[in-house]
Design goal:
Helices cover 68% and strands 2% of the residues. By secondary structure, it is mostly helical. A two-stranded antiparallel sheet has the order 1-2. Helix 1 runs antiparallel to helix 5 (81-98), helix 7 (199-207) packs across helix 10 and helix 10 (259-292) packs antiparallel against helix 11 (310-340).
């Protein structure tokens, strides 16, 4: 008996029809509707809809997408991506075999849709890049404006610095000229107060080169960058040692010559005490910073009978500072003003020659004074601002 062999191409077409129909009918079953009801729901005649499901007629473009959309709307569940992709591949292979012309159209349509999606994505990227560019441009303009403001401020600061340096040069010249005279005119009017008792000490610091150099060195200790604990501790130790050295220096007979110099020392000492009190206040603030960093815990004041803690120590610190400041406020002005305006009972030498002559008189018997008013010679006093050729010899 002879058997008829079915061509492989026809077999493949049949399998593709069956796969397409099987996948779509499974989706149809998830809706709970009949094929006729779903056809009316989508808007297709039932006869045409049946032929689309069996691929006896080519469905219109976009049929699968429309079918899946209505299935999801009726069932309330999304169509599995794998099912949608399998149905689409079966349809595309079927069209490729049975309808080559439609296949080319379908491929071109899909390439067009993909190109449109790509263009849309690129448009979104381009729009985002445009917004980013606009933001960057605005930020650049803000930074540029800030740089211009900082440049102008820097120019002003440099101008002020140059003016201050020039003023310092002028003041140094004036102080150098005024420092040549060691005598001081005193007032006979008694003074019991001063508007600013700090002024004598500040004046001494400005005139005295040694004081200026020491202050400069100490100031440079913390002007090089950020302040660290070693800087703070070093300054505290230097202040303590300086105060002890000042007390020791004042025990010498010739530590000071005039009450006006004593006024300068008193003014500076009161200023040092005031600054020390402020340092004690700020020390309490440093503990507050430690508590803010959670390095320590400043407990609330203890109940009666409990031992005192850090917070109590801070309170006592502030109390000590306030007590000392109260004493300074009560007495500093009177003390400094009285010293500043106290008369001198003898006349101090006014130039180099007078100094040498008075030294010779005081040390008569140990030194011989050879006076000369000539400004030419080999005397050691020729190196002074107001030279003379006087000589002291043993």
């Amino acid at each position: 008996m002879e058997t008829t062999q079915v061509p492989a191409e026809e077999t493949a077409v049949t399998e593709l029809r069956q796969e397409w129909a099987l996948l779509l009918r499974r989706l149809l079953d998830t809706t709970g509707l009949s094929q006729k009801q779903l056809a009316k729901h989508i808007g297709y005649p039932p006869h045409d809809f049946s032929r689309y499901l069996n691929l006896r007629r080519l469905p219109p473009v976009g049929f699968l997408t429309e079918f899946c959309g209505h299935v999801e709307g009726v069932s309330g569940r999304p169509v599995p991506t794998e099912t949608r992709e399998r149905a689409d591949r079966a349809f595309l292979r079927f069209v490729e075999v049975e309808h080559p012309h439609r296949y080319e159209i379908e491929v071109l349509r899909r390439e067009r849709d993909a190109a449109i999606e790509c263009v849309d994505a690129l448009s979104d990227l381009l729009e985002g890049a445009r917004r980013d560019l606009e933001n960057c441009r605005q930020r650049y303009e803000q930074v540029e404006e800030g740089v211009e403001l900082l440049t102008e401020e820097l120019r002003q600061v440099r101008g002020e610095r140059d003016a201050a340096q020039q003023r310092c040069v002028e003041l140094r010249g004036l102080l150098r000229d005024s420092g040549r005279s060691t005598s001081r005119e005193t007032s006979t009017v008694p003074y019991t107060d001063m508007e600013d008792w700090r002024l004598p000490g500040q004046t001494v610091a400005q005139k005295d080169e040694l004081a200026g150099e020491v202050i400069k060195e100490v100031t440079n200790l913390i002007s090089q960058g950020d302040v660290e604990p070693r800087h703070t501790i070093a300054l505290a130790c230097v202040g303590a040692e300086t105060a002890k050295l000042l007390a020791h220096t004042l025990t010498h007979e010739w530590a000071l010559y005039t009450p006006q110099q004593a006024a300068g020392v008193a003014s500076a000492a009161f200023a040092q005490l005031t600054a020390t009190c402020e340092a004690l206040r700020q020390l309490g603030g440093a503990l507050d910073h430690m508590a803010g960093r959670r390095d320590i815990h400043l407990a609330t004041p203890p109940s009666p009978g409990q031992p005192e803690g850090l917070s109590d120590a801070v309170v006592r610190l502030h109390t000590a500072a306030e007590t000392a400041l109260s004493a300074v406020d009560s007495h500093a002005s009177f003390v400094v003003a009285t010293f500043e305006h106290a008369p001198i009972s003898r006349t101090l030498p006014t130039d180099t020659h007078a100094v040498l002559a008075e030294v010779g008189e005081l040390l008569n018997g140990s030194l011989s004074f050879h006076g000369s008013h000539s400004r030419e010679g080999s005397g050691a006093a020729l190196t002074y601002p107001d030279p003379c050729s006087c000589v002291l010899t043993f």
